[in-house]
Specification:
Largest sheet: 8 strands, mixed
Radius of gyration: 23 Å
CATH superfamily of the largest domain: NAD(P)-binding Rossmann-like Domain
Distance between the termini: 70 Å
Number of strands: 8
Structural class: alpha/beta
CATH architecture of the largest domain: 3-Layer(aba) Sandwich
Number of domains: 2
CATH topology of the largest domain: Rossmann fold
Length: 346
Amino acid sequence: MHVNVTIIGMDRLGASFGLALKRYETQGKADHSFTIIGSDPKAYPMKTAKKLGAIDNFNRAVLKATANADLLIVNVPASEQDALYERLGPTLKPGSVVLDTSLLKMPVIDLAARTFPSNDRGEPLAYLVGITAIVNPKALYGGDLSVDGARADLFDEADVLITPDTICPAEAVALAENVTRLIGGQPRFMGPVEHDGLIAATEELPMLVGAALFYTLRQSEGWMELRRMVNPTLALAMHALQRQSAQDLFELFSQNRDNLARHLEMLIGTLDQVRDSLTAGADDDAEELAAFLSFVGKTWEDWDIKRYSSKWEDKPGVEMLPGPLGGMGRIFTMSRRDEDDADDTD
């Protein structure tokens, strides 16, 4: 079966979809073939994706790129979603399926409900399925998220979260599952509300921390020297500022503010306790800090091994640390700050 595919957004993720589909075509018993058209506002990503073999051709004009598409992979920043779907939605072919890679799924589900074509009974004629690729561990620490970092094995043996709306037909969900397997991934199903709650912790919180970190250093009296001393440790912590515009970050944070605020409060509680341990100066507090860092190091190593092996069986029981950094289970159960610990107000 031949399928016309359009990929909108030619960064590492978008181009890797193309490379993975093209790799599948080369298999001896491939049941499907693809014509893949790429689209991006900038010429370089499209030309590079074609040179890499991820796409067959490209067109900057989105409606021309998608005119014959049976399957669309939409991979655009949050600030561009409204304008894209307002233009694209009404033009979709009946029966076409859009796989959307947006970090947040609920806002895009609402956009599809407003813009996709429907019949006289109000039933959609084109379908949206949210997907989130959890990349192959080989690429987990790779910093190049541009088209130049694209790789055919980005999804190999990695989870791909499929997050359909409740009204999405089974055939569209099955197509998303099939595409996931064709690119080498393992499909996992998740509700869009649950997905967005988890994304607040794994994507948005690091972005917000990176922005806050840069702001803090920029306001420092030592900024004139600090700015000349940035190496990978700090640069990678602020990486989102390179990939996301201020408007993108605003859209992401405001659309998911309750979930993000909850995780931010947990982090603030942890940082409060670490600060107290650093500034107290007593031997006991130094021991608590050492125990905290030892615990983090060991549990991170355990997580890293599981991430690489994809063997996630949890062992029962987690030892709690004594003292302020572990007392009452506050820090390692990710509980919120106690009300008594909050700043006093008049």
